[in-house]
Amino acid sequence: MKNVAVILAGGSGRRMGGSLPKQFLVLGGKPIIQHSIEAFEKNTNIDEICIIIHSDFIQEIENILIEGQIQKVKHILPGGKERSDSSLAAINAYQKESNVSLIFHDAVRPFISQDIINNVIQEVKDGKSVAVAISTVDTIFQINEKNQIVSVPQRNLLRRAQTPQAFSYNVIKSAYDIALNDPHFVATDDCGVVLKYLPSESIFIVEGDESNIKITFEQDLVQGEIILKEK
Ligand SMILES: Nc1ccn([C@@H]2O[C@H](COP(=O)(O)OP(=O)(O)OP(=O)(O)O)[C@@H](O)[C@H]2O)c(=O)n1
Ligand SMILES: C[C@](O)(CO)[C@H](O)COP(=O)(O)O
């Protein structure tokens, strides 16, 4: 089985603002995406890396690969409008290969640990679909369009989704094939696609950690520097 890390970096970082997409902002002296790429580069269970990026930023990625002496990157592909379009670009790129698992990771989660990657690979190696998640200390409200609470799900059964999310190739490909026939298809992550369109497939949770944050808003950069100092 070939384990391919897919680094999703095709977003523009609207919530962060600024002209440079947030994955290129510097934390601890390195672009955020470089931390993410290096985490998978140094993991011995990862065979190959595929980077999804807007075509305007391919040169920036190539510079980072040289700077970080990255050897495992086999594809740098243009992303799409939505995160799911970017996932699909990777799925299409591996169509002709057999025995592949795709391990999707947000480029903007730079503090992914080696333990989490190893635990994900351990599960996906057994043919399972895997999501990384952590428990929630907050109670979560489900609301409606009028901003009214409609339910308060039992908190000990709720988890906050992180990445990586990993699937054997056939599972993720089948789920997206069905999803693409749905005119109302929208997704904020890949597990949601598998759960909705391939409901017979179980997705198992691997415990994440609080430092595996997604850099989304400006204040996350401050938290990111704190996490780096603690490491
Ligand atoms: N069309 C897209 C949108 C997002 N992503 C990637 O998915 C990850 C998580 O997305 P998010 O944090 O939402 O990033 P952005 O879409 O860039 O941010 P925003 O939603 O604030 O615009 C990021 O690494 C982002 O680059 C992607 O590959 N392709
Ligand atoms: C995949 C994800 O990071 C899990 O929490 C999240 O759904 C990505 O959402 P975004 O809106 O693309 O940041």
Automatic annotation (TrEMBL):
GO terms for molecular function: nucleotidyltransferase activity. It comes from the Bacteria. InterPro entries: IspD, IspD/TarI, IspD/TarI_cytidylyltransf_bact, Nucleotide-diphossugar_trans. The record marks R15, K22 as: Transition state stabilizer. The keyword Nucleotidyltransferase applies. The record marks R155, K214 as: Positions MEP for the nucleophilic attack. It catalyses: 2-C-methyl-D-erythritol 4-phosphate + CTP + H(+) = 4-CDP-2-C-methyl-D-erythritol + diphosphate. Pfam families: IspD (PF01128). Its EC number is 2.7.7.60. Keywords: Isoprene biosynthesis, Nucleotidyltransferase, Transferase. Pathway: Isoprenoid biosynthesis; isopentenyl diphosphate biosynthesis via DXP pathway; isopentenyl diphosphate from 1-deoxy-D-xylulose 5-phosphate: step 2/6. Catalyzes the formation of 4-diphosphocytidyl-2-C-methyl-D-erythritol from CTP and 2-C-methyl-D-erythritol 4-phosphate (MEP). NCBIfam families: PRK00155.1-3 (NF001183). Belongs to the IspD/TarI cytidylyltransferase family. IspD subfamily. This is 2-C-methyl-D-erythritol 4-phosphate cytidylyltransferase.
